[in-house]
Amino acid sequence: ALRSIFLMIKLNKKYKFDHLIFYNYNIETAIPAWFAKTFLGIPIIVDYEDGYFAVDQCKKIEKIIINKLENILCNKIQGAILVTSKLQSRIKDKKNVIVRGIINEEIYNIAVSNKREINNKEPVILYSGGLDEERGIKILLESLRFTSQKFKLVVTGQGILESYVREYSDERQC
Q: Across the chain, where does the E strand assignment appear?
């Protein structure tokens, strides 16, 4: 988490992020998101897929920590990307969009219509997290292939899909 915070500070100076999307409420992503909102003023959006509160493999102490992070950050998020309407009750009254595994132009247009005006500049998308199948970086990159919208993608993290991310970056020139 600490490495992500330092890298985020450095990259934010260069790119000035419009928003930060963080994955679930796990420690590796929630703490940097809290820092981004609290100290850098970057609006944050949670990509809430499975809710660690319901995962049996989590140890009791992990569930307690994750629930605390969820309670702290829920008041700071601007909105949420959810995979099921059942998670809506956990984000209180925040704006949200439910995406059940398929990204298409209609969903994209709904999502950006709730956003402030882009003012003819490329939006900046920051992904900060593990570069593996579980964290969803491959799904994000595959989904971005379907948009004609120009954007700047900034990826931070480590994992077994680092070469995949580099190939995507070279291909898109981002």
A: 20-23, 44-48, 77-82, 95-98, 124-128, 152-156
